[in-house]
Amino acid sequence: IYILGIESSCDDTAAAVIHNGKILSNVIANQKIHEAYGGVVPELASRAHQQNIVPVVDQALKKANIAKEQLHAIAFTRGPGLMGSLLVGTSFAKSLAMGLNIPLIDVNHMQAHILAHFIDEEGFNKPPFPFLAMTISGGHTQIVKVSNYFDMEVIGETIDDAVGEAYDKSGKILGLGYPAGPQIDKRAQLGNPKAFKFTKPKVAGLNFSFSGLKTAILYFIQKETANNPNFVEENINDICASIQYTIIGILMDKLKLASKQTGIKHIAIGGGVSANSGIRQALKTGESKFGWTTYVPKFEFTTDNAAMIAIVGYLKFLENDFTEQDVTASARLKI
Ligand code: ATP
Ligand code: FE
């Protein structure tokens, strides 16, 4: 079974071809234009998707070494995401499926981040049901109880900023470029995580909050630079290490609580922030300390990509779960 996956929810135009469980191609056109603005500009994203989508899909088919007539179905991201961006992928997928007279499969982007764990990839184990999935990205922070492929329940999520946003906004305060997550991570590994203390937010249950942290960091930097204008550059590694220590602490507190409450010890992560060295280390500690088994997908399947859309397409294909031509994009689609 050959399925084409199309992803256009945010600022990456992506297409992938999957043959049964294996990814044959995974193409991404990243929109560099947003870097200059320090964040994604929806209007520009939509326009770039329109320019990218045809060449990206062509390239995905070419790399997979198949003709479009060999495809069995087209899977696309229906939501959540930016409306203008989603519309480009949705309309493209609909017309391609209609032209080829093959089924159309709609995919929830947040389910796809989780189901990326089911791509056949050497050296990567698939989590057994039930497992806990923590999706940590630029737009989301969720803990999901996954009982089966399409039986998922969000048991915790952020009430304000996403964790990736916390990284990016902290980075902006420190004068680091966008996205700042990888840069903070790199410097954090050279610094002392206990050099500066930022208080963790008090949010009951399994929900997260990150907006207070950003404010705390802003005030702290303002106060310190008033005394010493070179404070940031002299202490950048320690500042980054302390921010990272606080963020990872917040994530781990909730993950531990979720595992305790549900009794589930299989823990999977996904989303761009799962590249972070601190969270990876913390998960390893969870394995030895709490008897967890942890799952981190291959890097290219953690950030926004179409391979994860294609695997969901394949799983839905097996269940004959298709959608109609009158399907519409949904910016706030829920799990
Ligand atoms: P969403 O997937 O929710 O729509 P998105 O597309 O912005 O949002 P991703 O592409 O999954 O999210 O991830 C990007 C985010 O990951 C950015 O906020 C970036 O700073 C962060 N990030 C990437 N690498 C690291 C790292 N090593 N440490 C911390 N954060 C990181
Ligand atoms: Fe995403």
TrEMBL record:
Principal location listed in the UniProt entry: cytoplasm
Annotated InterPro entries: ATPase_NBD, Gcp-like_dom, KAE1/TsaD, Peptidase_M22_CS, TsaD
Note describing how the cofactor binds: Binds 1 Fe(2+) ion per subunit.
Cofactor: Fe(2+)
Enzyme Commission identifier(s): 2.3.1.234
Residues the record lists as binding Fe cation: 109, 113, 304
A cellular component annotation (GO) from this entry: cytoplasm
Protein role: Required for the formation of a threonylcarbamoyl group on adenosine at position 37 (t(6)A37) in tRNAs that read codons beginning with adenine. Is involved in the transfer of the threonylcarbamoyl moiety of threonylcarbamoyl-AMP (TC-AMP) to the N6 group of A37, together with TsaE and TsaB. TsaD likely plays a direct catalytic role in this reaction.
PANTHER family: TRNA N6-ADENOSINE THREONYLCARBAMOYLTRANSFERASE (PTHR11735), TRNA N6-ADENOSINE THREONYLCARBAMOYLTRANSFERASE, MITOCHONDRIAL (PTHR11735:SF6)
Similarity annotation: Belongs to the KAE1 / TsaD family.
Protein name, per record: tRNA N6-adenosine threonylcarbamoyltransferase
Organism, as annotated: Xanthomarina gelatinilytica
